[in-house]
C-alpha cells in the first residue's frame, strides 16, 4: 500500500517536472539565474553595509562605556578624596 502511494507521488512529481521542462525554456533559465545573481549581490552588499554600521556602533558603544565608567570612577574618587580630607 505504501509503495503504491510512493509510486503515485513519484509519478506526479515526474509529470510535473516534465511539464515544467516543456514551459521552462533557456531564456527563462537565463533570467532566473540572472535574478538569483542579482539577489545574491544585493544580500552581499547589505551584509557589507551592516558590517560597516556594526563597526561604527561598536566604536560608539565602547566610547560611551569608557566615558560612563570614567565619570563613575571620577565621582567615586572625588568622594573618596573628600572623605580623606575630612
Give short descriptive properties of this protein.
86 residues; 95% helix; rod-shaped
Q: Fraction of residues in helices?
A: over 70%
The number of distinct β-strands equals: 0
N/C terminus separation: 94 Å
Oligomer: single chain
What count of helical segments does DSSP give?
2
Task: Describe the sheet with the most strands.
Answer: none
Classify the beta-strand content into a percent band. Answer: under 5%
Name the structural class.
mainly alpha
**What is the string of SSEs from the N terminus onward?**
HH
- Average pLDDT across residues? 85
Sequence stretches where pLDDT stays below 50 over 5 or more residues: none
Overall form: rod-shaped
Q: How many structural domains can be distinguished in the coordinates?
A: 1
Computed over alpha carbons, the radius of gyration is: 32 Å
Detailed description of the structure:
The protein has 86 residues and is an all-alpha fold. The protein contains two helices and no strands. The longest helix has 60 residues, at 26-85. It is rod-shaped, with a radius of gyration of 32 Å. The termini are far apart.
Short description:
Helices cover 95% and strands 0% of the residues. The chain is mainly α and 86 residues long. The longest helix has 60 residues, at 26-85.
